[in-house]
């Protein structure tokens, strides 16, 4: 399952699932992508289909492994990953080095176990208000789920996860 960043940073007011869907389509990716965020409808840990949570690796756009599987992201260690494996945007840029993302922080709105934090998810990702708060993770920690709170007016990286694996019928 591919983990890919949106092509630009976003404040807490985003239509992230739609952005993930749209940018994946524009990049020619055929499977479904959902935002790597807890929402008012769903905890982050349940975004990927149950059948795909255990046996498929989580990889970047170039197929390099970030996690052995989806459930390993939520084992309580904050989603520790190898910081030497880049995370790319849908248009192929490395979010860790590209200046388009001046703040190397990702929004997630979750606990370290991928459960939604209702008080810290920018009002279900509908506000960029300076007084509202969102849970996010500085990438320099090497964790996707580090527990830091930021004002929703910050423009951070938004990740998208391929939420169901569809094998190529021509394969």
TrEMBL record:
InterPro entries: C-type_lectin-like/link_sf, Collagenase_NC10/endostatin, CTDL_fold. Residues 1-166 form the Collagenase NC10/endostatin domain. This is COFA1 protein. It comes from Calonectris borealis (Cory's shearwater).
């Amino acid at each position: 399952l591919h983990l890919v960043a949106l092509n630009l940073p976003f404040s807490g007011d985003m239509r992230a699932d739609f952005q993930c869907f749209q940018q994946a389509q524009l990049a020619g990716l055929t499977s479904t992508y959902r935002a790597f965020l807890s929402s008012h409808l769903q905890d982050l840990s349940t975004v990927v289909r149950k059948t795909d949570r255990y046996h498929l690796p989580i990889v970047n756009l170039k197929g390099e492994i970030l996690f052995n599987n989806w459930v390993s992201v939520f084992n309580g260690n904050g989603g520790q990953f190898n910081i030497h494996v880049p995370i790319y945007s849908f248009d192929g840029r490395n979010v860790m080095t590209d200046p388009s993302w001046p703040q190397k922080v990702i929004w997630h709105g979750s606990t370290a176990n991928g459960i939604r934090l209702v008080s810290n998810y920018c009002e279900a990702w509908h506000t960029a208000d300076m007084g509202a708060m969102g849970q996010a993770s500085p990438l320099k920690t090497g964790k996707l789920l580090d527990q830091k709170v930021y004002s929703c007016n910050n423009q951070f990286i938004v990740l998208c996860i391929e939420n169901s694996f569809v094998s190529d019928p021509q394969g």
